[in-house]
Structure formats: structure tokens, C-alpha cells
Design a protein that fits this description.
heterodimer; A: 167 residues; mainly alpha; 8 helices; 77% helix; 0% strand; B: 2 domains
């Protein structure tokens, strides 16, 4: 992982935009929410770059990204008509087929994506940051602000639940 | 030791230190349950990692498109490309001129080089074919 800091937020968008979108899509299960999240993250990056302190850029960026995701989940949960946490996943899954059809890249009956959406959020984000984004445990720990041991445990427990869901 | 537990995932992710790897495999060699777990977790990990990498929806980040063809950088590129083509034309002329054309390198440079630097529409596609042809006449 690179530790160099892109000079502009446009560079961040160009280099990381697709990764952020894939992170968001795998967590939310639909293109609309993923797109909203990408824009929100880039907005926060633009605001935050001015005060960015040299360090782990990956950790900084993915902390912003997962915080934006969690804020979105919390905002939906606050709405009177919003579904409860477990139902967020069902709601997301319900809208997934249109995104799948639109881009034609994954099948409508994508069992792995469905299984991901059934995971508790903390396990889902750990698995996605590891297996989709490709971060190390240390980088995930920085992004999620938990010890590396917790990351290790969450990834393992997440995979265990995935296995149960897929078999 | 107890069963492999989250050491199995850590091993698959390359996050296990060498002593822990040795310890894990020492255990797995005599524990069918953990040997099976290792295979199962490897399958799950591969399944997630084999999810396709999706493209960004078109227009989601307009600045990304703009970044690919920035106005100033593009203009600089065209001028540079035109200058490079002119230099190539001059080089060809220097080789061919003594026997095939009564035109000097200086004349080519002043005639076409000046035009290339002044005329923004003077692009590489317009330069290569006609001017090489002229030189060869």
C-alpha cells in the first residue's frame, strides 16, 4: 500500500474512486447507496485534505470511508420509516437486482453478496476491507480504530458466518 | 494447544508470524477438525475475493473524467506533439533534401515550424502525411 499523499482530491478520486465504490457496493448491496457514499467520501476527503497530517494515508482514507458508511446506516435507522439494522440488509438486497442488471457484472442471485449483507456491520466491514479492498490487518485496525487482534477476530467470525450462510 | 480459531484466517491472510504458523500446522497435523476448517475458510475467502471488481458508474465522479483530459495539460501536449512532428519532418528532410528536394532545413523550420507554433489547429494528424509528401516531391 502506498503511503504517499495524493496532491488533490481529484487525484484521490482517480486513484481510489473505484475501490471506494466497490467497498460501498459490497457493504450496501446496491448501486445508488454506493454512489451516494462515494460522493460523500470524496466530499469529506476534499474538506479533510487541507488538515491532513502525514501518516498512513490508507488508514486515514478508509477511516473516512467507513465513518461515512456508518453515518449513513445510523441516519437511515433514525428515520421513522427506516428499517431496523437487520432489515437494512433486506432493503438493500431488494434493490440489488436492478444494479446488477444495469451493469451486468454479477448475477442476480449472487449468493456471496447476499451472505455479506447478512453479516453484522462490524464483521462485514472487516471482511470487505480485507478481501475486497485488500488492506492489511494493521491498516484495517487504523481505519476502524480497534486493536489488530479485534480485526483478526472479526474477519474470522465474519468468514465463519459466511460459510454457514453459503452451505 | 486449543483449536486453530482465528489463527486460520490470519494464516490465510499472511498475517501470522512464523512461530504461530509452525504452531498452527503442528496442531493441524493431528486435528482433522482444524484441517477441515482451514479448507472451508480458504473456500470462503476465495469466494469473497472472486467477486468482480465493479466499474465506477459513468458520471459518478465527473472530475475523474476531467482529470484525464485537463485543458492546460492537453494544450501543452498538443504543442509538444506538433513540435515533435515538426522535428521529425525536419530530420527526414535533412536526410532526403540533398537529392530529392530543393528546400533547406532552415526553410522547412521557418515555414512549418512557425506555423506549428502559432496555429493551434495545427495537429499531428494534419502534419504527417502532407508535409512528408511535399518533402519527397
Amino acid at each position: 500500500m502506498t503511503e504517499s499523499v495524493p496532491l488533490t482530491w481529484e487525484e484521490v478520486a482517480r486513484v481510489y474512486g473505484r475501490k471506494i465504490y466497490n467497498f460501498a457496493y459490497r457493504l450496501t448491496g446496491n448501486s445508488d447507496d454506493a454512489s451516494d457514499l462515494v460522493q460523500e467520501v470524496l466530499l469529506r476527503v476534499r474538506k479533510g485534505l487541507a488538515s491532513y497530517q502525514p501518516g498512513s494515508f490508507e488508514g486515514w482514507l478508509w477511516r473516512i470511508t467507513r465513518n461515512a458508511f456508518l453515518d449513513d446506516v445510523r441516519r437511515k435507522n433514525r428515520r421513522p420509516t427506516a428499517p431496523l439494522p437487520d432489515e437494512v440488509d433486506r432493503w438493500d438486497r431488494a434493490s440489488a437486482p436492478s444494479a446488477d442488471l444495469e451493469y451486468g457484472r454479477i448475477s442476480i442471485g449472487d449468493d456471496v453478496q447476499k451472505a455479506l449483507l447478512e453479516l453484522p456491520v462490524e464483521f462485514r466491514e472487516a471482511v470487505v476491507l480485507c478481501d475486497i479492498v485488500g488492506l492489511s490487518y494493521e491498516e484495517i485496525a487504523q481505519a476502524v480504530a480497534v486493536p489488530v487482534g479485534t480485526v483478526r477476530s472479526r474477519i474470522h467470525r465474519g468468514r465463519k458466518l459466511l460459510r454457514e450462510s453459503l452451505t | 494447544m486449543s483449536h486453530g480459531g482465528d489463527q486460520i484466517s490470519a494464516y490465510l491472510d499472511g498475517e501470522l508470524a512464523r512461530p504461530e504458523v509452525d504452531q498452527l500446522f503442528s496442531h493441524i497435523s493431528s486435528c482433522g477438525r482444524c484441517a477441515a476448517e482451514l479448507q472451508h475458510f480458504q473456500s470462503v475467502r476465495s469466494a469473497v475475493r472472486s467477486l468482480p471488481l465493479l466499474e465506477l458508474p459513468p458520471g459518478l465522479v465527473p472530475e475523474v473524467d476531467a482529470e484525464l483530459i485537463p485543458l492546460h495539460r492537453n494544450r501543452g501536449f498538443l504543442v509538444g506533439a506538433a513540435a515533435a512532428v515538426v522535428a521529425l519532418v525536419i530530420a527526414i528532410a535533412a536526410i532526403l533534401a540533398p537529392s530529392t528536394a530543393a528546400i533547406s532545413v532552415e526553410e522547412l523550420n521557418s515555414r512549418y515550424g512557425a506555423r506549428a507554433s502559432l496555429d493551434p489547429a495545427f495537429g499531428p494528424a494534419k502534419v504527417v502525411v502532407p508535409y512528408v509528401g511535399e518533402i519527397l516531391e
